[in-house]
Every structure is written in C-alpha cells, then in structure tokens.
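TA notes, week 10

Several of you asked for a full example with nothing omitted. So below is the full record: structure tokens for the whole chain, then the designed sequence directly under it. When grading your own attempts, check the secondary structure regions first.
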C-alpha cells in the first residue's frame, strides 16, 4: 500500500515510460537498495502529478469546451513535465559534483600525510553529504571486491559521470601499481589536482547554463495558455470577434501556435541540457516493434539496402544514440502515424472537413488531409533533426573528450608494466565521440600492431586527437613515457582553449534560445490581437459608404 502510486504508474501504459525514465536516472545518482529507490521515485511522481493537476485545472478552466485548446495544453503539459524531470536531474548532478569536489579535497588532505588511500576514502565518506557518501561507499565496496577478485557490481557501470570514473580509475591504479614520485611530487596527488580543476570547470559551466537559460522555457510556453484570456478580453471589447475566435480561423491559429511552441520548446531543451540526459528508450517503440508484421516489414526494408542501413547504424553508434537503426525506423513510423491521427482528430473537432473552400464542396476535406499528411511527414523526419543536432553537439565536445584522454594518459604513462593496449582500453571507457575509432584500434591492435593507429588516423580529421595517435605510434620506438612527455603542457593549453570556447558556445546558445523563446509570444500578439482587430476594423470601415 505504501508504494501504491509507484505500482500504479509503473504498470500504466501512459505513465510507465516516464516512471522508467525517472527511476533509471535516480539509480545512477543514488546507488541504493530497491526499496529506497522506489520511495524516491514515488516522491518525484507525487511532485509531477501535483504539477499536472494544477496545469490541467488551468487548461480546463481556460479552455472550457474548446477541445483543441485542451489537447494543445495537454501536449505542452507533457513537455513541461519532461523539462521538470530534466531540471531536477541537473540540480542533483550539480549538487553531487560540489560534494565530489569537497570529497576529493578531503582525500588529498588525508593522503598527503600518510599515503594510505583506503583510510583516506573511509574518512572522506564519513565527512561527505548524503549523495556523495552513497557513491563513496559503492567505490569502497567495488575496490574491495576488485582486490579480492570477487564478482559483484562493477563501479564503472554505476559511475554517474566520467569524473567519478576517472577518480575510481586513479584509485585502482594506486592500489595496483602504487604511487610514484615525478619531479618530487606525488603522481596521485597531481592527478587529483587535475581532476579537481576539471570538476570545477564543469560546475561553473552547468551553473552558468542554468543562469543563462533561466525562465526561457516558461516564457516559451506561457503565451499558449494566455490565448483564451486574450480571446475573452477581445470579445468583451468587440463582440464581433466571436465569429473569428470560436470558428475555424481561431482553432487553426491555436493549433499552429501550439506546434511552433512545441518545436521551439524542444530546441531550447536540446540547447540547455547535456547530451547524456537523452539516453532513454521509449517503451512504446519497443511494444510497436513487438508487432510481428511491423518487425518483418522493417527487416525486409533493411535487408534490401543493407549497406546503407549498416552505415546509418554505425553513425548512430558514433553519436551514442539510444536507438539502433530498426528502432529508429519504428520510432519514425510511429511518430508519423500518431501525428496523423492527432491532426485528423483536431481538424475534425474544429469542423474543417465540413466546409467548402472557394466553391469546392470537398475543399475543407482536401485541405485537412493535406495538413494532416504534411504534419505526419514532418513528424516522421523529426528524429532525423534530433540526430543532426546531437551530432553537432557531440562535435563541439571533441576537445573536451581529448582532455579526458590526456588525463587518462597522465594517470598511466609513468606506471610500470603499463601497455598501449591497457591505455586504449581505459580510453574506450571514457569515449563518446571517438568510441568507434578506439574500438577499431582495440580490435586490430593485436594483429596489425602499430599500423592500427595509421589506419585509425585515416578515418579521423581532428588534429588534437590525431596528435594522441601520433604519440602512440612514437611509443613503439621511444617508450610510452617519452612519447607522451609533452602531453601535460598540451593538456593545459586545451583546457584554457576549451574554457574560452565554452564561454563563446554557451553565450551563442543563450542568444539563440533567447531569440526563439519570444517567437510564440510574438505569434500570439500578432495572430490573436493585431490580425483580428485590424481585419474587423477594416471590415466595419468598408461598411460605411458616403
């Protein structure tokens, strides 16, 4: 009975996808037992339901008997709920990163005096916030299991982000290889310092993003909910406007404004939130593909153009897209069908199919079908636009990933018995943009040797990454530590460069978001205020004849 809401929502076809999305994310930030996880998920669901009830009350009050307005409001309510979930995750991650920064400081302080990592971890966990203490305990459990060569949960699969993964890798390295002195300084403490600097940069970036985008999603969505208030005010001042607002023209205006608002809302969310927020698979897509004839149809289509779809599959892997090629095709078809049905329902409710246009008896029907089909085609290609945006965003993060690789190399390069294969294996764990390239190197390194790096260079045209591959090639002649001897100044250079570029990118994103956020407001003012008043004003003026 305690988890009634969770049980109901997780089994309900409409809400179970959202429950899974919330639960999967909370599982990463709070690695806890199942009962505690369910309770936290239920708390998030309560917040969402309370917000949904409030919004629906406002929508029903404003919409009254306007079916199309209620549908528009419900769609925007779902978008706002999704933003609320993402925003909550973002706040939690910032909170966790701040606790992690303090945790690292405590580790560094303790280790500097006695050089005992495990005791330093235990001490730091006791002085940590709740979220970080959970992560710290999981790290200790995983390290103990790794030392005893026992099976269990691997922390690499639980780490919330690459910063935690880097720290865990540092701990494993120190336990396995021991700490070393380079130029009279502890290698572990030096690497901890680099990691702390990276975390601080990420915290500042996240907080600045939140500040720059604050209120923009509200500004985008609010004008749609003001449509009915504007209509009531307009009719009160000019009763003749009732024929415009309550007939087909007013309904089509509401639908167009809602669609434009949804597109802009989605673009702003993509600009605001990191790529790794978008890893959830829709349960509806999985169920859609479980239909046998649809699955067979897609498999036949893929087999006819196998090479084309294989290259598309590789591209989806390279951008860490949550769906494979068959699931993407199913999602596109499903988006098209659902949009077509919704548009037919809306256009039927406003009576477009029953009117004649320019003397053509079935003119309204033809126009309605054209609108529904065009909307369906746009919805079908919607995921293609998503993929293009995701690809561009990942390309922006290439230098940041190179800095992560340099951090890994700095951790390992001075250790005894370290091999090129081990460094490549570690780099794979941290890769997003260059994952496919590193996998290709790892697969061919055994039999191709150093030639694997030459082949990998032919498929990549990004100089900082190519420099790393050149260093691997050189390591065959001069050794790993000598080949990567210049990596520290390069890392410092790229960090400073990335800071400046990140500043420019964030500002550019904010400028774009702030510009498009006001488009729905402008549309509402023009379509709901200026056009109707001017039209009926001119109509009344033309009625007066001298």
């Amino acid at each position: 009975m305690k988890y009634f809401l969770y049980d109901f929502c997780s089994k309900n076809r409409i809400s179970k996808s959202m429950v899974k999305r919330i639960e999967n994310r909370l599982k990463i930030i709070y690695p806890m037992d199942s009962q505690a996880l369910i309770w936290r998920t239920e708390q998030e669901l309560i917040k969402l339901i309370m917000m949904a009830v409030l919004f629906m009350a406002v929508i029903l009050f404003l919409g009254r008997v306007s079916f199309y307005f209620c549908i528009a409001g419900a769609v925007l309510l779902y978008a706002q709920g999704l933003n609320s979930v993402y925003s909550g995750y973002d706040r939690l991650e910032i909170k966790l990163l701040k606790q992690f920064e303090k945790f690292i400081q405590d580790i560094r302080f303790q280790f500097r005096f006695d050089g005992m990592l495990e005791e330093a971890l235990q001490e730091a966990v006791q002085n940590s916030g709740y979220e970080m203490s959970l992560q710290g305990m999981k790290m200790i459990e995983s390290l103990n299991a790794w030392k005893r060569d026992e099976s269990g949960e691997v922390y690499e699969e639980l780490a919330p982000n690459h910063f935690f993964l880097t720290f865990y890798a540092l701990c494993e390295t120190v336990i396995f290889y021991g700490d070393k002195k380079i130029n009279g300084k502890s290698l572990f403490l030096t690497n901890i310092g680099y990691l702390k600097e990276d975390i601080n940069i990420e915290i500042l970036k996240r907080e600045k993003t939140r500040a720059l985008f604050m209120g923009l999603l509200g500004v985008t969505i609010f004008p749609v909910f003001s449509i009915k208030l504007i209509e009531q005010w307009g009719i009160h001042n000019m009763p003749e406007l009732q024929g415009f607002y309550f007939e087909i023209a007013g309904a089509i205006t509401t639908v167009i404004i809602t669609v434009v608002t949804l597109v802009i809302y989605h673009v702003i969310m993509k600009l605001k939130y990191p790529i790794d927020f978008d890893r959830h698979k829709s349960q509806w897509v999985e169920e859609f593909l479980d239909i046998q004839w649809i699955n067979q149809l897609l498999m036949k289509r893929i087999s006819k153009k196998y090479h084309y779809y294989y290259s598309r599959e590789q591209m989806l892997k390279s951008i860490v897209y949550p769906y494979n090629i068959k699931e993407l095709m199913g999602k596109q078809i499903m988006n098209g069908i659902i949009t077509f049905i919704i548009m037919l329902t809306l256009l039927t409710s406003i009576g477009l199919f029953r009117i004649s246009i320019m003397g053509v008896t079935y003119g309204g029907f033809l126009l309605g079908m054209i609108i529904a089909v065009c909307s369906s085609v746009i919805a079908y290609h919607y995921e293609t636009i998503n993929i293009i945006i995701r690809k561009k965003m990942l390309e922006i993060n290439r230098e940041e990933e190179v800095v992560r690789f340099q951090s890994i190399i700095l951790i390992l390069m001075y250790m005894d018995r370290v091999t090129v294969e081990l460094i490549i294996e570690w780099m794979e764990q941290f890769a997003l943009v260059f994952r496919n390239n590193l996998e290709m190197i790892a697969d061919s390194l055994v039999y191709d040797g150093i030639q694997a790096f030459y082949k990998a260079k032919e498929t990549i045209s990004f100089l900082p990454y190519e420099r790393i591959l050149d260093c691997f090639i050189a390591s065959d002649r001069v050794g790993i530590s000598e080949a990567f001897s210049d990596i520290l100044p390069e890392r410092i250079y790229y960090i400073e460069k990335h800071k400046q570029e990140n500043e420019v990118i964030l500002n550019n994103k904010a400028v774009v978001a702030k510009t498009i956020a006001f488009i729905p407001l402008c549309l509402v003012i023009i379509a709901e205020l200026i056009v109707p008043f001017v039209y009926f004003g001119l109509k009344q003026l033309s009625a007066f004849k001298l």
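The longest strand covers residues 181-182. Use that as a sanity check on your answer.
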